[in-house]
């Protein structure tokens, strides 16, 4: 038995009440402690924290009570501070009397764990590349659809307004996929989405749209759009900005679009001079134009609030406030 203990590559020892009584040479080599430093010490010495020590105790002794042996994956901390991944197997000398001691064998599986972690990291990286490529291809396909729609402009003049709207809507969806393909974390930043949609609407209508970020170099903290709501939010923004342009007199000042965010909440404010004097109630779709009816139907039930006001100078202000779960703080993978 002494020869087996001396030759074993696994750290082997005996504990009584979780106090170390004896260890083999592999145990000292594994932990970096000498046998004199280990014998007589509580096994707590080997664990990086009390939580891990307590967890192993509960799990190991519960398994011993059920089937006579306890096998637990855990972490130890070597004398030099290195963290080791350990497969710990424990068997009582006398199952009827634990006070006689528990023998244990500790196998270092750190290298295996590192290889597994690297394999999972490589798989995640491959998935990210694949997902980004899919988003990129979807964006390109949507842009091809836009090209086909544009070829139809002018053939039937009465259909041009409808084609124009369809083109900007497809563009808005393409923006979402384009941002996901460009960001390593597939984050869809709200400010980037609004900026791109402003550019698209401006190019399509040949009308200026002024975009700016409130307190960009001071208190502004960007947010990202929840992926499940990204297309709906993009279409809502497209409709609101397109309406602001279409219903502004050509000789009036360009519509203004501003974005503000504090890292968790955001708001988009669209201001434009309106050639019309009527007001409408967003709580009912009865008096809404087609675009605003679409906005009303797409508006998420939670986390999105829309209001429209008009001042004495016929300046129309559309205010879209977004919060969780529609938007959230920007997070990076692995952080």
Description:
With 335 residues, the chain is of the alpha+beta class. It has two domains: 2-108, PAS domain (Beta-Lactamase, 2-Layer Sandwich), CATH 3.30.450; 115-329, Histidine kinase-like ATPase, C-terminal domain (Heat Shock Protein 90, 2-Layer Sandwich). Helix content is 43%, strand content 22%. The protein has helices spanning 2-7, 25-31, 35-38, 50-67, 110-152, 160-182, 190-205, 230-246, 290-298, and strands at 11-16, 19-23, 70-77, 83-92, 102-108, 210-213, 223-225, 256-261, 266-273, 304-310, 315-322, 327-329. The strands form three sheets. A five-stranded antiparallel β-sheet has the order 2-1-5-4-3. Strand 3 and strand 4 (83-92) form a beta hairpin.
Uncertain stretches: none
Top-tier CATH class of the largest domain: Alpha Beta
Output the radius of gyration: 32 Å
Summarize the biggest pleated sheet: 5 strands, antiparallel
Number of strands: 12
Global mean pLDDT: 86
General shape: elongated
CATH superfamily of the largest domain: Histidine kinase-like ATPase, C-terminal domain
Q: List SSEs in N-to-C order.
A: HEEHHHEEEHHHEEHEEHEEE
CATH topology of the largest domain: Heat Shock Protein 90
- Our estimate of the beta-strand percent is 15-25%
Q: How many domain units?
A: 2
Straight-line distance between termini? 49 Å
Percentage of residues in helical conformation: 40-55%
CATH second-level architecture of the largest domain: 2-Layer Sandwich
What is the count of helical runs? Answer: 9
